[in-house]
Each structure stands twice: as C-alpha cells, then as structure tokens.
Inverse folding.
C-alpha cells in the first residue's frame, strides 16, 4: 500500500487517477481548490481506502506550504507524488495574448509543480525511495501557433522531469514524465473560457483519449517493479498523428 498525493484531483485526469488508485487500495491524498468537490470525492472513495484531502491553490506558495505542512504525522511520508494540476488559457497569437492567461499557465503548470515538488522531495530523499509522476503534454513535443505559452510551459515540465531524474536517481527516486495527446476533459472548456461550442469542436469527428486512459497509464508506471522506471510515456488517441494532426471522420 502506497501513500499517494495527487494535485488537481477534483476533475479530469486527477479525479480518474484518484478513483483508480483508491480502488487499488492505496492511501490517497487528494488536492484541489474546491472544498465541496474534494469532500464529495473523499466520501465516495473512503469505501475503498483511507482518504485525506487538502484544499489549496498550487500557484500560491504560502498555501502550498501551509497545506502540506498541515498533514498529520501518519500522512507525511508520501510514496508517490502525481503533479497533475495545470491549465491552458486562451488560444491567441503572442501579439494578442492576454498576460493574465500567460501568468495563470506559467504559475500553474511550472511554478505550482515546483512548489509542491519542493515540499515532497526532501522526505523522499531521507527515505531513499519515492516516485514522482509529472503530467506534461504532447504540446511539449511540437509547438503550435496560438498556443506558444502553453507549449512552453509543458516543455518546461519535460525539462524539470529530466532535471529531477538527474538529481534524484541516486536516492532511489523514480521520475516519470507523461505526455498525453488529446484527452476529453474540461481542458478545452477552460481554454475557451466556458464556450462549450468551441470546446466541443476539439473532440469532434474522432475518439479522443479519456481521463481513465491516462489514469491506467499512471497506475502502470507506479506499479512497475522496484527496479523498473518508466521515464517517459507519450500517449495519443489512435486518430492523432502528432500534436497538430488529428484525422477526423
């Protein structure tokens, strides 16, 4: 049984991952910004395993520190950290980009991942064991027009994952970097600021990945034998050839 902390656990990939790993009898710490959703998920999954919830915004260092420091002693030894929380805002060229959108993506996708990791890594180093799973994107593999800042933040996740691996392998800590392709979640609703018609077009004419598909992949990686580390994993729906190319019916 592992103690697993998942950021962005109130929806999408994070929620599906919490559900799957709880059913595999791991102890789960779910993190997010919405108290009601956290408590509802905690109640639902408590039938399978021990659950704990933390409410904080990964973009706020003080909130991150206060929340993780508040963990009871019996929850402090984190075996697996899943850095899932992140966001995409807007789909504009740089010349018309909104700086608030840029800040939100850089603060969430890059700085938030660093803040949470910085709190968890020292304990893993002391115990000479642990596993960190970072959720990147195929957007890190190929930059596309009107998504430059988002692509840059996910490229940063790739680089951070590589750096973590270089720094932490000697301590027995595994690092896994996962790059999902098109996954049908609230991702596009957030990117298009609630415009459901635009969001729907992203997933029209083909079968996209589901959040459960990525949860399965995460479970595979963290359940691998001790001597096996899945360092990088890229996952596309069958209809997607590369980040910009999807074959639609």
């Amino acid at each position: 049984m592992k103690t697993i902390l998942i950021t962005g656990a109130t929806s999408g990939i994070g929620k599906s991952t919490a559900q799957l790993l709880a059913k595999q009898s791991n102890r789960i710490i779910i993190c997010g910004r919405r108290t009601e959703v956290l408590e509802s998920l905690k109640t639902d999954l408590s039938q399978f395993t021990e659950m704990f919830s933390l409410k904080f915004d990964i973009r706020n260092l003080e909130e991150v520190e206060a929340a993780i420091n508040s963990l009871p002693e019996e929850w402090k030894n984190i075996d697996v950290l899943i850095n899932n929380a992140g966001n995409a805002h807007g789909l504009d060229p740089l010349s018309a980009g909104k700086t608030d959108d840029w800040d939100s993506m850089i603060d969430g996708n890059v700085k938030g991942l660093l803040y949470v990791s910085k709190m968890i890594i020292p304990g893993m180093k002391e115990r000479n064991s642990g596993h960190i799973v970072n959720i990147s994107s195929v957007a890190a593999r190929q930059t596309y027009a009107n998504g430059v800042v988002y692509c840059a933040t996910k490229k940063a996740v790739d680089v951070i994952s590589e750096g973590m691996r270089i720094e932490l392998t000697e301590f027995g800590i595994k690092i896994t970097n996962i790059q999902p392709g098109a996954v049908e979640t609230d991702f596009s609703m957030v990117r298009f600021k609630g415009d459901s018609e635009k969001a729907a077009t992203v997933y029209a004419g083909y079968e996209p990945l589901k959040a459960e598909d990525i949860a399965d992949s995460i479970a595979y990686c963290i359940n691998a034998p001790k001597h096996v580390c899945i360092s990088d994993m890229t996952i596309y729906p069958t209809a997607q050839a590369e980040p910009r190319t999807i074959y639609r019916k």
